[in-house]
Amino acid sequence: MSEESKLSSAQRNGVPENPRAVCNGCKRLYRDPKILPCLHTFCSDCIGQLEPFSVASRKGPGPGSGARAEALDADRAAAVTVLCPDCDSEVELPASGPGGLSTDHLALDQVFLRTLQTDGPLGCDLCGEGGAESRCDVCCVNLCGFCCQAHRRQKRTASHSVQRLEELRSGGRLRRPVLCSLHPGQELRLFCPACDLPVCLECAATLHRDHGCCPTRDVIGRHGGRIRELVAGGLRPRMERLRESLQKVDVSQEALQSRVDATAGAVRVFAAGYASAVETHCLSLLRRLEELRVQRRNQLHLQGAQLQQALLDVGGAVEFAERLLSCGSDAEILSAKGVTLRRLTGLAETGYDPHPANVAPDDGGGIRFMAGEPAGDVEGYPLVGVIHSKTLDLSKCTTEGEGLQRAVEGQQGHFTLVCRDSAGEQVERGGEHVLVSIVHKEAENCTLETTVDDNRDGSYRVTYTPGETGAYSVWVCVRAQHVKGSPFLLQVKRRLRRHGGTFHCCSFCSSGGAKEARCGCTGTMPGGFLGCGHSHRGHPGKPHWSCCGSTEERSECLPPSVLAAVSPRGHLRTCEL
The whole model's pTM is what? Predict the structure, then answer.
């Protein structure tokens, strides 16, 4: 019976599936199962079909002796690595191939158990006739009822543990004996410490005669204990930590997905709101454009009517005047001269001026859309895009500020340029090319450094610092053309010297009678006083500055050269009372 038919028969008979008896490579019952270094089991044929991942030569024999040493030396000949189909780990295969790997006897037990569940009752291993009912745990043989009684009556096997097959099947503890590969039929019941291998009785008597072989039950505690120690002491706690960490990762993934979903919802809400705001802004711009169209249309209507009326007035006056001059006699001309001149003069002086600056521009009223300019917030969303409807008219641009006509030497001066449209209104944006040049009208190579700051609202602040006094020419140009009034005349005056003394009546009073106190005036007092006093020689007769002697309280302090000429002895500033 084939293995596929066994599986289907097991399924038909209601036998529960046992995944531990099935190879993950071929999806069939294990055939010669081998354990990879990563502790995953596959059929030997399945391992042999894996593509080599890398091949590297090994150098030097390893320690050991006997069969085990020979096997190790053979394994060191070359290292072939493959990828485990279960965990994708890179594992090494011995030089002898998959046959050199350890056999997974647990997997064979599962296959054996599956076979029992599928094929029905076992035969007796002793008589080969009756159906097996029990199994000896020591001899690892299946016994019928008669052989089981005989097994218990013999002195050598009377103490063996015998259990019923039904109990072993229900508990999943039915195992096949592990037989020696060199001596078929011999079970591996001994252990060779030198070779670190389980052996049978014949192997212990021949190949491992001097290796001190002992029963497996005597060493299983030590070797199994090491495995239990690694599992219980290190790997199982680590497994718990890994499981907890994996649970945290799962929780984090769920939290991440929740956060992403919430953020996506917020983005959609934002996008919907932004789209609504953009649509509202678009409608507002279109309404503004329609208002400008109606406004400019009415302006053009009015302008056309004014031009039409002015044309009729001027045309009628010119026609009458030309007809009077060409057809009228001297008396007729002189008789109508007064009224004609008054009408012609009135039209020439006060009539509507048809200058192109007063006519609508050719670019559609200067209406244009500025996509990159901020438009403020609409429904809480910042938007861009505005409609400008004002065009620059150089003849209407103005300059404001005292710094355009007057400045003081060494002190910063400033003025403001305001760009306006043909209607005289300030334009709503900046960005114009403004050039300001301030040149001394008499001194050569004297040009002031200027700074032009764009206020982004159609106005520009110009600052400068004059270094010399005198007259300067100020050129203010926009788009390489002078604005109205340019060039301007700038007068830079000398900086006034501040008074450093006291404006007093005399040094005697302001100093409290100190004889050493001097004054900027030429007045002196008798009695050894160096300064001035009331009604004494040189007193100016009125309050004056102690630093320079000037009698004007709001005046400039005279320079030291003038003071020296007035009072060769100099002066001492008096103390303020």
Answer: 0.41
